[in-house]
Amino acid sequence: MADKNSAIAGEEPPSVAGLSIAGTSEAPAAGAVEQQIDPWSVSAGQDAEGNVLAFDYPAISNRKWNTKLIDQAILERFERVTGHRPHRWLRRGLFFSHRDLDKILDTYEKGKDFFLYTGRGPSSDNIHIGHTIPFEFTKWLQDVFDVPLVIMLTDDEKALFREDLTIEQTMKFSIENAKDILALGFDVKKTFIYSDLKFYGNGGSHMLWNAFEFSKLIPFNQVRGAFGFDGSTNTGRIFFPNFQCVAAFATSYPFIWGDDVNSPIRSKKTAAIPCLIPCAIDQDPYFRLVRDNSLRMKNPSPKPALIHSKFLTALQGPGGKMSASNPNSAIFMSDKPKEIQKKINKYAFSGGQETVELHRELGGNPDVDVAYQYLTYFEDDDEKLDKIYAAYKSGEMLTGELKKECINLMQAYVKGFQERRTQVTDEVLEQYMKPRKLEWLGKKGKSAPPAET
Ligand code: TRP
């Protein structure tokens, strides 16, 4: 029942982004607030008493947006096809939903090319673990599949959507963020990272043509509902989604495939190369738009496939949001060991009891405990994790002990990052940002199993 305000017609359900997403179809109780998820604002629901609720992911993705939940069957197929055990973030449901991942596995199985595309909106130069995790995961996918990767830094988007930021500032953040992202260890032969505002004018002409051709297919009605635009929205915001969409077309990067950048022709063959996009679930509205229209391009591109992640839990607990403007909401990649220790001890929401005696008697609640949650992000050993879960729940393990485990892991992660970050000089960055032909082997590559970080 798509009306004329509807986001996106076609196979996907009608207008969804910007709508509040209730856990059920029932009206919320009086005084309750529904969760809200769209590409620019994310907030958890509240119950009638004003308590913040955890996000209800199946409600939004599976039931409202009609994505597929990642289940055991697809994980088993992933392992069969790639020969790699699924990453712990897949096993534990941090990446929990997808569109057409099975088709990407078909493509890979047949030894055909596809590429990975992800991005970041550079809104500050202060990144935290909520920012690094999606990129760590993308790097793992790149290692497993041995495929090209493009990383889009949307300094245009951030300057348009944040009243307080200028394009000079966001372009500067792009450079700082790019260095941080590269400190995660992407292979320079297979990775192209770009600042939108610089690339469009310098090697990105095919992307501009794609954006204009694509924009011609998209009436305002179609984005108005999806992104919450109205008559007073600045026109840059209205045009921007075209860019984030066409970044999923292989023809936006002719140099990667050895196509002629100076030719006015965008290759039909290149257009047919599939794309897989790892992203947080709030980015899905963009990609529904491209999925519904990619086949309408003169040189059609397949609907991009997606793997969606949940939001990472803020230190304050489920429903909270890691925020660059609140240093106590997250572990930042610039934090010193002592700061990490203090933040986790002081701010990490605890599922423990008020006193040691009570804790021993009643046990803790690992399901709401943030230190435990972070262990599930970074501790790879499933057995060890199960033991900690049981020990904390029974009261045998105390909150301080659980937090210590978490502090050790987080300190090691941040330290490793900081060491690698010092290696990413301007010269290194320049290599990754240069439009050039990439080299990859896909299924033909017999690379060693990638290490999980
Ligand atoms: N809009 C995203 C943000 O604000 C950045 C982005 C662009 C992105 N393209 C992407 C994120 C593809 C994930 C996948 O952070």
Automatic annotation (TrEMBL):
Q: Name one GO molecular function term.
A: tryptophan-tRNA ligase activity
The record's Gene Ontology cellular component field reads: cytoplasm
| BP GO annotations | tryptophanyl-tRNA aminoacylation
Kindly list any coiled-coil regions of this protein.
none
Please give the InterPro entries that the UniProt record associates with this protein: aa-tRNA-synth_I_CS (IPR001412), aa-tRNA-synth_Ic (IPR002305), Rossmann-like_a/b/a_fold (IPR014729), Trp-tRNA-ligase (IPR002306)
EC number assigned by the record = 6.1.1.2
Q: In which compartments does the protein localize? A: Cytoplasm
User: Pfam families, from UniProt?
Assistant: tRNA-synt_1b
Coarse class of the protein's main subcellular location: cytoplasm
Q: Which Gene3D superfamilies match?
A: HUPs, Tyrosyl-Transfer RNA Synthetase
What keywords were assigned to this record? Aminoacyl-tRNA synthetase, ATP-binding, Cytoplasm, Ligase, Nucleotide-binding, Protein biosynthesis
* Enzyme kind, highest EC tier: ligase
Entry similarity comment = Belongs to the class-I aminoacyl-tRNA synthetase family.
From the Swiss-Prot or TrEMBL record, give the protein name.
Answer: Tryptophan--tRNA ligase, cytoplasmic
Give the species this sequence originates from.
Eremomyces bilateralis CBS 781.70
